[in-house]
């Protein structure tokens, strides 16, 4: 779904908000990293079993590879100690712009925190997931549909539900 939707997305801004939340997978808590831009557009997500600098670096690398993203000028994150070390390593390796500013301020992430609510609301009735791969694929579906609903697709407006349904049907070659 991500691959089919990618070419149709609007470009994101250079101000990113990143955060992580917890999702229960097979009775264990896993970490769902999530990033949105200043306008609330979804950049990317990553489900990880670990909550460390390597996972944060993997998440930022994945987000930077997306066709609809730009290298961020500012990265606003919470007080997690993994983010500064991940950003420092990525700047040294040339993966992240060396003048990118990392801001660790609790209240600047309200946009991404509100985005977590949608995932939690969809996951909670199912009592979590039975496998890691099922969780990753299901959350990818949730994210794609939320991206369409938010109006990130360049060819359709955010409030035109019939156009969104027609677009998704055309994307997968099914009748609407």
Automatic annotation (TrEMBL):
NCBIfam families: transpos_IS6 (NF033587)
Protein name: IS6 family transposase
Domain of life: Bacteria
Pfam families, per the entry: DDE_Tnp_IS240
Residue ranges of domain DDE in the record: 15-152
Keywords attached to this entry: DNA recombination, DNA-binding, Transposition
InterPro entries xref list: DDE_dom, IS_Transposase, RNaseH-like_sf, Transpos_IS6
């Amino acid at each position: 779904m991500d691959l089919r939707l990618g070419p149709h997305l609007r470009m994101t801004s250079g101000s990113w908000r990143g955060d992580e939340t917890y999702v229960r997978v097979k009775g264990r808590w896993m970490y769902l990293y999530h990033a949105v831009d200043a306008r609330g557009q979804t950049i990317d997500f990553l489900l990880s079993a670990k909550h460390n600098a390597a996972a944060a670096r993997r998440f930022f690398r994945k987000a930077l590879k997306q066709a609809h993203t730009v290298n961020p000028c500012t990265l606003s994150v919470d007080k997690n100690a993994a983010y500064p070390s991940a950003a420092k390593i990525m700047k040294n390796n040339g993966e992240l712009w060396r003048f990118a500013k990392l801001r660790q301020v609790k209240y600047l992430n309200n946009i991404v925190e509100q985005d977590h609510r949608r995932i939690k609301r969809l996951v909670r009735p199912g009592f979590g997931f039975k496998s890691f791969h099922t969780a990753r694929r299901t959350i990818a579906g949730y994210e794609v549909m939320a991206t369409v609903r938010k109006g990130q697709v360049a060819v359709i407006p955010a409030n035109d539900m019939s156009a969104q349904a027609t677009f998704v049907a055309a994307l997968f070659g099914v009748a609407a």
